[in-house]
């Protein structure tokens, strides 16, 4: 048998059996996104307040926005228009390749390691409505938060924050006012879970950030429940 044929007919199927996973960037086996491709993902310039865009550091909100939104910091990995991250997020969400969350959580960890290893935190995934979870089978923010918790050994809680209103996807709404109203009163804090997390910094986890109104609503109800230190980590920012 010719070498190419041998490679194509025997070696590749065998490799697929052992490592059925391939990198979405370079096709190497064993990863959904390999360390090389992960390193090449264009990093978001976290040098401005994520809401009013005035100068700031590592996604810190400026003083005025902190007061207004009850959020201290939003750390964003990359831009949603980057082809590789978009492919990964879409495959994870819409094709149910949920193990992608494992690799993406690893990328988030490596990128925000300094912050994640020096603070007393708890991961809180941005919740999805029950109906959405029934349709999709899972909430990708929960998967990311669970993997981050496994990597860092920091706690995660999926019941502190609940979504009680089935809103439309923010990305589908073009009108600014509609987007704002869409998320209003969509979240509540589960009072039974407050005590355990009272003294920890809350890190909201989500996949895509558009205007930020989802995070703002989450932070608002958490603040009303008595949480002072609220930050967020997201994979990508989508500009509208
Ligand atoms: Zn790769
Ligand atoms: Zn600001």
Characterise this structure:
With 240 residues, the protein is α/β, with parallel strands linked by helices. The protein has one domain: Rossmann fold, CATH 3.40.50. 43% of the residues lie in helices and 15% in strands. It has eleven helices and six strands. Strands 1-6-5-2 form a four-stranded parallel beta sheet. Strands 3-4 form a two-stranded antiparallel ribbon. Strand 5 (201-209), helix 11 and strand 6 (230-237) form a beta-alpha-beta unit. Helix 5 packs across helix 8. The model has no long low-confidence stretch (mean pLDDT 89). Bound molecules: zinc ion (2 copies).
Notable characteristics:
single chain, 240 residues, two-stranded antiparallel sheet, 11 helices, 43% helix, elongated, binds zinc ion
Helix fraction? 40-55%
Present as ligands are: zinc ion
Question: Whole-number radius of gyration?
Answer: 19 Å
**Count of strand segments:** 6
Strand content: 5-15%
Give the class from helix and strand content and strand pairing: alpha/beta
CATH topology: Rossmann fold
For this structure, the quaternary state is single chain
N-end to C-end Cα span = 54 Å
The rough form would be described as: elongated
Ranges with pLDDT <50 over ≥5 residues? none
Number of domains: 1
CATH architecture: 3-Layer(aba) Sandwich
Q: What's the rounded overall pLDDT mean?
A: 89
Q: What is the N-to-C succession of helices and strands?
A: HHHEHHHEHHEHEHEHE
């Amino acid at each position: 048998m010719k070498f190419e044929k041998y490679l194509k007919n025997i070696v590749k199927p065998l490799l697929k059996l052992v490592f059925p996973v391939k990198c979405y960037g370079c096709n190497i086996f064993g990863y959904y996104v390999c360390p090389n491709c992960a390193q090449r993902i264009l990093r978001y310039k976290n040098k401005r307040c994520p809401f009013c865009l005035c100068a700031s550091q590592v996604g810190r909100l400026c003083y005025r926005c902190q007061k207004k939104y009850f959020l201290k910091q939003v750390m964003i990995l990359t831009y949603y228009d980057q082809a590789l991250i978009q492919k990964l997020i879409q495959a994870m969400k819409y094709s149910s390749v949920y193990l992608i969350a494992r690799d993406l959580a690893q990328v988030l960890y490596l990128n925000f390691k300094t912050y994640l290893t020096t603070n007393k935190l708890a991961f809180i995934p941005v919740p999805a409505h029950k109906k959405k979870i029934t349709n999709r089978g899972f909430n990708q923010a929960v998967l990311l938060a669970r993997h981050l918790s496994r990597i860092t050994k920091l706690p995660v809680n999926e019941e502190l924050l609940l979504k009680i209103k089935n809103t439309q996807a923010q990305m589908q709404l073009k009108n600014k006012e509609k987007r704002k109203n869409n998320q209003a009163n969509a979240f509540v804090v589960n009072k039974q879970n407050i005590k355990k997390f009272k003294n920890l910094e809350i890190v909201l986890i989500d996949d895509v950030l558009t205007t930020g109104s989802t995070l703002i609503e989450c932070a608002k109800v958490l603040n009303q429940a008595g949480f002072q230190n609220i930050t967020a980590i997201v994979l990508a920012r989508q500009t509208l």
